[in-house]
Amino acid sequence: MNLHKLLFTVLLATAFIIVPNSVKAQSETPQYPVYIVQSGDTLNLISLKFNVSAEDIIAVNNISDPNLLQVNSQLVIPGIEGAAGILSFEPIKLGETPIQIARFYGISLSTLFKLNRITTPSEFFLGANAILVNNIQENKGKGMLLLRDSESVFESAVINDFNPWEIVQENQISYIWEIIPGENFVAPVSEEKSISGSVIFDKLPLTQGKTSSIIIHQKNANAHASLDNMEINFFELGDSSVAIFGPHALKDPGLYPFHLEYSATSGEKIVVDQLISLQSGFYPNDPELSVDPETLDGTLTQNEETEIKEIISQKTDEKYWNGLFKIPVDEPVCIKSWFGNRRSYNGGPYDRFHTGVDFGVCANLNIYAPADGVVVFTGPLTVRGNATIIDHGFGIYSGFWHQSKVLVQVGSKVSAGELIGEIGSTGRSTGPHLHWELIASGIQVDPLDWLDIEFP
Question: Where would you tag: which of 222, 342, 372, 378 has the fewest CB atoms within 10 A of its CB?
Answer without folding.
Answer: 222
